[in-house]
Amino acid sequence: MKKLEQAIFEIQNQADFEKVALEVYEFQRNNCEIYRDFVNQLNRKAPRKISEIPFLPISFFKSHEVRSRQRAVETLFLSSGTTGSERSKHYVESLEMYEISFFKSYCKQIGNPEDQIILALLPNYIEQGNSSLVYMVDHLIQASKNKLSGFYLDNLTDLIQAYNTAILTGKDVVIFGVSYALLDLADLKPNLSKARIIETGGMKGRRKELSKEELHEILKNAFQVPFISSEYGMSELLSQAYSDQNGLFDLPSWMKILIRDVNDPFEFIENGKTGGVNVIDLANLYSCAFISTQDLGKITQNQLQLMGRYDHSDIRGCNLLIE
Fold it and tell me: Measured between alpha carbons, how far is 157 from 150 in angstroms, rounded to an integer?
């Protein structure tokens, strides 16, 4: 398995991705009971390319234990959600895979945490517990090796003070925040013009739902920053993508998005058209790497553009806002 683990993070091109993805599919079909049963029910021929691989509906993470059972469970991640909503469960058999994944993608897209001071405003994730986002941000904070870096819960004035001190050090400042907490911070209209703001989605029933464009416009004006980044990830995955100034998400080399037809889940549509988001996350080696989400999006200039969510799906953090 070590050879396959290494191959996942050494992918250089589409040919590499196809080869490794088919190997991961074969491993998961043989070892992940729920995925095997799902594939068998479809009664389809063995895939020869990634578009022929079956994608497991993300709802299975609420109703089943989706894992390969090759190792002992090292931790359990639960999805965030509003009070009373059922939370997805991700039984993680390799935290090492998660740590390699988030460090590599963060360093490439946001920067080296050793050169940063990282401030986190993620109160609900900490309150609910078992958050993959908190696990990631905590490790990034530790990697920054700076006493100013940390979680600030609801302490908005302390965060502003930490930011003002941080910019005097000459280091880059990164602020992670759940949407409703960032809006609470925006009410104070602090000048955060030298920070990289990364919103993680989610009003959690605390504030009125806004489109992502509306949210980002409010935050940009309040914080005096040119753009707001978003983080696209979820408890069921072990990889993330971050949006640029155009609102488009760059994906790590071991992650790929296929856009499915909203009327036929087994058909994929061409780039530039909106459909359901299917995620291939090869870092999810020990659970399921092929997931059909409830997000809507399209591929624009080889990047992911999120468009909203299917009606009647749960409002969840680490994703996006309903539009």
Answer: 14
